[in-house]
Amino acid sequence: MELSELVARYDETLRTEAYADIDASANGLQVDRDAREVDHVAVAVDAAAATIDEAATAGADVLVTHHGLSWGGIERVTGRAYDRIARLVDADVALYVSHLPLDGHQQLGNAAGVAEFLDVREREPFATMGGEPIGQRGTLSTPKSAQRLKEELDELPQGAGETRLLPFGPEEASEVAIVTGSGVDFLDDALAAGVDTLVTGEGKQQVYHQARESGVNVLLAGHYATETFGVRALAALADDWGLETTYVEHPTGL
């Protein structure tokens, strides 16, 4: 498959253009390559020296990540930026990135993956930026305690096994909102939507009091752990398109 075709397929599937004026990330192809043919796609959560090297060692032609290298533009190609780009160029590995589009995709996205993991039903878009969704909400197939939800999230693939629970909502949870990564800023949206539990990755100091005063359970399952689902789904797509795929695991525990 030509690199341009792979990029076009991902862009169309993820509706990359719809997030162009919303996301600080430069979604889509961030680093090109000399060779145009693509046979092998590696995926990872982060575009970092470690994941780039592992993708190159695996023989990948393209590395697809959730967190890329360009956030509002690269002013100078020095330091870490130079090191990461040089590794990609030296190995002739392209870099394709999907940040908010991959958070918000209602079938392939990170929130959708967590919702499936928790067996959330009657799912619909939740939490919007610029009119585009970045999360999901829905109803647990079986109501369960917030503590039980914590125990389930402790079992997330590559999770730290240390989900933090702020148990300020009902003892039995049933209506859940999910924004992966750093999603605690959507606590008020969760409250307005009538959910009793917000699942996200990492927290901020102020969320403790906000959750307590709002009467909402908050579960912090780890930024990395909640964002492995989307890139795995993109690997599955590439596999369906007849390409070899590799998932590069590099959990941060955060």
Q: Can you give keywords for this protein?
A:
single chain, about 250 residues, alpha/beta, 6-stranded mixed beta sheet, 5-stranded mixed beta sheet, 11 strands, about 25% strand, elongated
Structure, described:
The chain is α/β, with parallel strands linked by helices and 254 residues long. 32% of the residues lie in helices and 27% in strands. The protein contains nine helices and eleven strands. The strands form two sheets. It has a six-stranded mixed sheet with strand order 5-6-8-9-10-7, sandwiched between helices. Helix 2 packs parallel to helix 3. The longest helix has 13 residues. The chain starts with a helix and ends in a 7-residue tail after the last strand. The relative contact order is 0.17.
Structural class: alpha/beta
Rg (C-alpha, Å):
18 Å
Largest sheet: 6 strands, mixed
Mean pLDDT: 96
Strand order of the largest sheet: 5-6-8-9-10-7
Q: What level of helicity do the residues show?
A: 25-40%
Q: What is the 3D form?
A: elongated
Low-confidence stretches: none
**Terminal Cα separation, in Å?**
36 Å
Q: Could you state the order of secondary-structure elements as H and E?
A: HEEHEHEHHEEHEEHEHEHE
Query: How many E strands?
Result: 11
In percent terms, what proportion of residues is strand?
A: 25-35%
Number of helices, where a helix is a run of at least 4 consecutive DSSP H or I residues: 9
